[in-house]
Amino acid sequence: MTPTNLLDLKLSGQTAWVLGASGAIGSAIAVILAELGVRVWLSGRNETKLQEVCERITRAGGQASVQVLDATQSVAVDDAANAIARAAGRIDILVNSTALPTFGKFTELTDADWDRTFQSKLMVYVRTMRAVLPHMIEKGGGTIINISGKAGRLPSPAHLPGGSMNAAINLLTKGIADAYQHQGIRANTIAPGPIASERLNALTAQLATIATAKPEYMARKGEPEDVARAVAWLASPLSDYMNGIVLPLDGGSIPTV
Predict the structure, then answer these.
(1) Deepest of 57, 67, 139, 194, by most Cβ within 10 A of its Cβ?
(2) Cα separation values, 184 from 9, 75, 135, 207, Å
């Protein structure tokens, strides 16, 4: 698979596990990593979409495999990580990009809404990191990149469950970076702003129903490829002094330093 207008990020031959690879951001991440010579394992619940991404990669000459997974189940996550490690010999890169959008007014959100968001976002990241760390440590290191979101730093009135999980992911990732840096592990977070997707359309519709919401003015919305390029750089040796950061990727839209 020949990279298009990309630097040589020294990733060729590595193995990446991309969670949420059936979504707009996750699939873009998988494609760009494959363009850089990474063998990519695609996980998510939607087998049809995963297969479409896999076929897109393989048609272009890249290497990809599908691992259908319900990442809310700890045993399933452990089994998937072990299967990938056996098949590929190692897991060099883990990218978590899962989300189950839960939008609505705070007073109308139920305990079930909050628990569903907790299990499908924060706990998925906990489970996958816990599953891959032993494999990475055994091979002398690895890179973890977690996708959180702008709402983890700047609350959105229609997205408080997801924003709360994103804030927790930012903290969790920093903790993992500190705890495992001496074993060759780097862990960083990317916090995207509005990224063109079905999820953004749903959030915009919810914001329009809440009187306290304020419109965001940006030169353009982000694209999934913007996140993918940031992931590729953070996964590469070119960023090997970056550890435990939260990288804002929001077009400068947060009104603070």
Answers:
(1) 57
(2) 18, 26, 12, 42
Beta-strand ranges (E) seen in 11-90 are 15-19, 39-44, 64-68
Are the beta carbons of 144 and 94 closer than 8 angstroms? yes
Mean confidence (pLDDT) of the chain: 90
Whole-number Å distance between alpha carbons of 36 and 172: 28
What's the N-to-C CA distance of the chain in angstroms? Answer: 39
Q: What is the DSSP letter of 7?
A: -
Q: Enter the tokens of residue 133.
A: 């760390």
Instruction: Note the pLDDT tens digit of each residue in 116-158.
Output: 999 999 999 999 999 999 999 999 999 999 999 999 999 889 8
Q: With 60 as the cut, is the pLDDT of residue 208 above it?
A: no
Give the per-residue SS3 of 164-231.
HHHHHHHHHHHHHHHHHHHHCEEEEEEEECCECCHHHHHHHHHHCCCCCCCCCCCCCCECHHHHHHHH
Residue 189: both structure tokens together: 């977070």
CA angle 135, 228, 205 (to 5 degrees): 115
All domains of the chain in start order, with CATH: 15-246 (3.40.50.720)
Return the exposure string of 93-110: e unless at least 16 CB atoms fall within 10 Å of the residue's CB, then b: bbbbbbbbbbbbeeeeee
Q: Residue 108: pLDDT above 90? A: yes
CB 97 within 8 A of CB 145: no
Q: Specify the pLDDT at position 215.
A: 46
Q: CA angle, 83 as apex, 81 and 85 as ends, to 5°?
A: 70
